[in-house]
TrEMBL record, chain A:
Domain Succinate dehydogenase/fumarate reductase N-terminal: 62-166
Domain 4Fe-4S ferredoxin-type positions: 203-277
Family matches, as NCBIfam families: dhsB, PRK05950.1
This protein's pathway: Carbohydrate metabolism; tricarboxylic acid cycle
The protein, known as: Succinate dehydrogenase/fumarate reductase iron-sulfur subunit
UniProtKB/TrEMBL annotation, chain B:
Record organism: Halorussus gelatinilyticus
A Pfam family that the UniProt record links to this protein: Sdh_cyt
Lineage, highest ranks first: Archaea, Methanobacteriati, Methanobacteriota, Stenosarchaea group, Halobacteria
This protein's record includes keyword Heme: yes
Annotated SUPFAM superfamilies: Fumarate reductase respiratory complex transmembrane subunits
Major place of residence: membrane
Protein's name according to its UniProt entry: Succinate dehydrogenase hydrophobic membrane anchor subunit
Superkingdom of origin: Archaea
Record keyword Metal-binding present: yes
Keywords, in A-Z order: Heme, Iron, Membrane, Metal-binding, Transmembrane, Transmembrane helix
Automatic annotation (TrEMBL), chain C:
Cofactor(s) the protein requires to work: FAD
NCBIfam families the record matches: sdhA_frdA_Gneg
Any one GO MF annotation of this record: flavin adenine dinucleotide binding
Domain (FAD-dependent oxidoreductase 2 FAD-binding) ranges: 5-387
Family note: Belongs to the FAD-dependent oxidoreductase 2 family. FRD/SDH subfamily.
Name this polypeptide is given: succinate dehydrogenase
Membrane among keywords: yes
Automatic annotation (TrEMBL), chain D:
TM annotation in the entry: 23-47, 68-86, 106-126
Classification via Pfam families: Sdh_cyt
InterPro entries: SdhC_prok (IPR039023), SQR/QFR_C/D (IPR034804), Succ_DH_cytb556 (IPR014314), SuccDH_FuR_B_TM-su (IPR000701)
Main location: membrane
Name recorded for this polypeptide: Succinate dehydrogenase, cytochrome b556 subunit
GO MF, one annotated term: electron transfer activity
Superkingdom: Archaea
Biological process terms in GO annotation: tricarboxylic acid cycle
CC terms in the record's Gene Ontology section: membrane
Localization per Swiss-Prot or TrEMBL: Membrane
Keywords associated with the record: Heme, Iron, Membrane, Metal-binding, Transmembrane, Transmembrane helix
Amino acid sequence: MSTQVPEEKEQSETEQEVNAETEAEISEGASYGDQRRDQRDAQRRQSVSGAPADIEGESFRLKVFRYDPEVEGKMEPRFDDFAVPKQKGMTVLDALIYARDRYDTTLTFRHSCRQAVCGSDALFINGRQRLGCQTQISDLEEPVRVEPLPHQDVVKDLVVDMEHFYDQMHAVEPFFQPEEDPDGDLEEYRQTRENREKIKMSTRCIWCGACMSSCNIAAGDNQYLGPAAINKAYRFAMDEREGENMKEHRLNVMDQEHGVWRCQTQFSCTNVCPKDIPLTEHIQELKREAVKQNLKFW
Amino acid sequence: MAERYSSFQSGSASWLFQRVTAAFLVVVLAFHFFLLHFMNHASEVTFAGTSARMSEWGYLVTMVLFLWTGTFHGVNGVYAALLNQGLTGTKKTAVKGILVVAGLALAAQGTYLALVMNGMV
Amino acid sequence: MHEHDVLVIGGGGAGLRAAIAAHEEGADVAIVTKLHPVRSHTGAAEGGINAAIREGDDWELHAYDTMKGSDYLGDAPAIETLAQDSPEETVQLEHWGMPFSREDDGRVSQRPFGGLSFPRTTYAGAETGHHLLHVMYEQVVKRGIQVYDEWYVSNLAVTDHDDAEDRECHGVVAYDIKTGAVEGFKARNGVILATGGTGQVYDHTTNAVANTGDGAAMAYRAGVPLEDMEFVQFHPTTLPSTGVLISEGVRGEGGILYNSEGERFMFEYGYANNAGELASRDVVSRAELTEVNAGRGVEDEYVYLDMRHLGEERITDRLENILHLARDFEGVDALEEPMPVKPGQHYEMGGIETDENGETLIDGLYAAGECACVSVHGSNRLGGNALPELIVFGARAGRHAAGADLGEAEITKGKTAEIEEEDGLDTPVEPGAVPSGDDEAVADGSDDVAADGGAAVVDPDETVRRAVERERTRIEELMQKDEGIKHSDLRADLQQSMTENVNVFRNEDGLKQALEDIREVREAYQDVYVNDPSRTFNTDLIHTIETRNLIDLAEAITLGALARDEFRGAHWRQEHQERKDDEWLKHTMLSWNDGTPELWYKPVILEGEDKTYEPKERSY
Amino acid sequence: MSQSYNRGLVEDFGRWREFTAGMWAWIFHKFTGWVLVGYLFTHIAVLSTATTGANAYTDTIQGLESLLVVRIMEVGLLAVAVFHILNGVRLLFVDLGLGLESQDKSFYASLVVTGVIVLASIPTFLEGAF
Ligand SMILES: Cc1cc2nc3c(=O)[nH]c(=O)nc-3n(C[C@H](O)[C@H](O)[C@H](O)COP(=O)(O)OP(=O)(O)OC[C@H]3O[C@@H](n4cnc5c(N)ncnc54)[C@H](O)[C@@H]3O)c2cc1C
Ligand code: HEM
Ligand code: SF4
Ligand code: F3S
Ligand code: FES
């Protein structure tokens, strides 16, 4: 674990000048508020160009896992430290973007929506799976330690290989399979409010993979479907529009060695799910349903 | 998915039995502990005492059941734990075999023992 | 080289729908997308899908509302197609299992939305887009459609005929983000661009970081005109640090806007004496910015949206998700303190010129979704009209590309006899590509098409191969430089200038300033370099390429905004505060012309199937 | 696929500080379960002395019981058994879908109750061992 600050410093000097110029021009003729904002931004850039110690005001330490299979010096995993100024409302994702754009453009992580709907940035933050964009710095102890999701292959820095997760999601026939069409043109399937309410939570999954990463069973048994995929199956099994026979089929898919029975009710998945999906509860319900169905045949 | 003819094949049976045996064990294990550590102190156990208890048919049956459920529960638990660690293929079959044999041996020996204590053998 | 019948670029709502439609027509389809499909920004849409599926409603009313909302800048054939197809497409989603909210009788619920004469917005909780995206991805999985995810499409493979109209698109060049391989994808039938919005042109947006308008920029440089780019919708209540949208529901329930002096400015300064906070999006956005510019903004940046007076009970009952949003993304407890809000870029009404079948000027090239402009939204999009656009025009583009006969399109493409040229636009700097000077390849790829003046390449395979070569060289160039300017600084400068000058608030000086700034950024981009030497997941490189696209789009938006000296829909000009129907019932078109942008105009089509829409005052 | 670096143990038990209630419960339950099976086997082995004769049985048991280590190990066994039972009951509830919201609390409760029972039983268990 090296705690060095990345080697960008020489370059950032030249950039600084270029920025200072463009900055000055933009400010001309701008309104009062804009000028103030410019000044503040200019200060911000100044202050971070040097060593982290230069930052005015409060800052915090961000420790980030670094690894690149093909770059000298990064092949051996290490942690890099970045000093990031504290701002109200700042999330871990903001801090990472700050560190990347100001200090080290090679810092790599997935992100897109910044609002907890795309599921790109599930990370291991201070020892827990969380979405970077959904985690306020002010809620964390310092230093803030950011690592890629455990139990998944690291591609580079904070990026992990999601293929296995996708494979498991695809393995549960994750698509609607109704038995019959509703009659009439432009007719919808009827679904009661209660039934929609029942599947509501399970439909909120954003495929972030946090749950899978937190589950020790999934870590041990690669074939275990994992909480997210089981939850996906739950979403369809419980949807009354699919019909009884289909439900039976869905339960059979779950009722296999590496299906629901692997779950040891660890609750880690439920704890970390950023969408608050009661995963353990859903898995348990499927187990009971499966047992009930099997008893019926007896 | 392959057609399934028997309904209990997938792990649901062992899962269910693990719970059922657990529920049964709660009662008997508590009884067992109480009887042999609190009512009669373990240090005062003698063959005569044991034998006397075992001569009661109800007690004998309970203890034998206790033994069998406990063995199933324990061995099945160990097996499940190993499966969770990703045990597959031939290794899995081998472990399963060993566990079944060990479990059966244990239960058989225990049953034989109980009958000895009962005085039947 | 990979080869498929139809290539769909982008896995958002539009792309997925297009892929499914093409697949149903029997085509061999593949989706190439820089994000895994479920990560697309369609997932962020909350409100709903407009569709006339109930008794008492009909598609004509929907079309009428949309035309009125567009401020008479939408094309009637497009709008009518949208309104006619939307019910079927929406019910199709339900048949694919979409968990719509339900009525007591078990049918899907609809709710009222701004600008609609009937409550026809079909919704699934506050997560309509999320469900739409996932349901369609499920169908893609079901059909086994091939998805190349985390492949970044960096350019189109288009023949290099001199005249854009003669060009044909035979595929794309894509960069495998995970391995760094640059590869060609050949499309036997067609390429469908569905790359989504352009929010990253601004520094404050409800759009995702990945919404960099790549498709629009690529099509533009390949010779397809961009249409109505100046019409950018801004949403008045977004959280300052992230741009996360705070729904209109808060103001609907009685939320109040305050400035830093604690004044209820919507009334105090007379921005909207009647409607107050509930005035239309553009009015409120402009009011907020005026306050900030007058020095009455909090931290010179935002204003407050206060809902504390509604009481905890009412808030938790009706606006619970707002509490979570404020908490998670701004660190604010909205029960205890007011929420900071400011206007943010939300939607780009303009885009790649297409007809109702999704076809562009270039043969074999299609576009659908937010990146396209069929012109459904005209100068202003109604809430709940983007999602139906994705499924209606996504499906049509997919079918057409796969060879289905959808009939002759009524909307014309490219320059026809009716167009009008613009020659008098006074720009402070020359827009367009930086001349490459010597023969050296230019890092920004401005020599995209017709570069070497030799015989035109028309063979499909050769076209793709050549495009791949060009991209390899361009990427090599970018990677080889050891020093220069970071793209992130350029992007920040560009975004800042756009936010300052081409925001809800537009005046001539500002727009000209923006053009100068964009020029400067464009020139600086010649010296951009990629710091990360790795071939593995090099986001530094990807973002650098994206920044180039942002520059072209920013310029297109600004040029359109400068040309259009009237106030229509989302476009407001300080010096010209009225709608000028005599002069401006026309689309602003911008052609790249191999590096020299050219502005021209195309008339709006107000004649519908069996009626003509007469421009009326847009008041609600 | 990816030539990625294996973070090894760091991913598993090296992370114990970051484990949550449910994970601890799982680990403890596993551990106690294994101890119990182990004990079951030894237990039967010890009792098997009965087959060689009444005295052998009595002597073995009383001989073992007179050892302090054995007494202490018995307390340990009690702790293990009580925890396994209590947590087992907790798991049974979880399986029935009851009280899932308080799964962490019930784990802590199992721990506390185990502690109390064990402490209270020490006198009985160690009686006469000195
Ligand atoms: C917060 C928010 C709320 C909204 N609410 C509503 C609403 O209630 N109702 C409504 O109707 N509309 C709403 N909208 C608008 C609507 O959601 C969007 O216009 C629409 O989702 C865009 O869909 P799309 O398929 O065109 O693009 P996206 O969903 O953005 O997808 C773009 C796709 O293109 C891919 N891509 C981009 N560039 C490349 C490249 N270079 N190479 C390869 N792939 C690429 C991306 O990976 C992605 O998969 C909302 C928008 C926002 C931001
Ligand atoms: C007395 C009441 C008991 C109860 C309520 C009980 C309950 C349980 C339950 C519910 C499980 C399943 C855990 C899971 O799969 O998630 C389990 C596992 C187990 N039990 Fe018991 N049990 C009891 C007694 C015993 C006894 C006497 C033994 C020893 C013979 C034992 C050995 C095991 C083992 C080895 C496991 C597997 C642990 C693992 O997952 O590694 N249990 N117990
Ligand atoms: S279930 Fe929750 S944690 Fe798991 S992938 Fe879905 S959203 Fe993420
Ligand atoms: S963490 Fe794993 S063991 Fe079950 S409850 Fe969740 S899937
Ligand atoms: S960036 Fe999309 S979930 Fe965090």
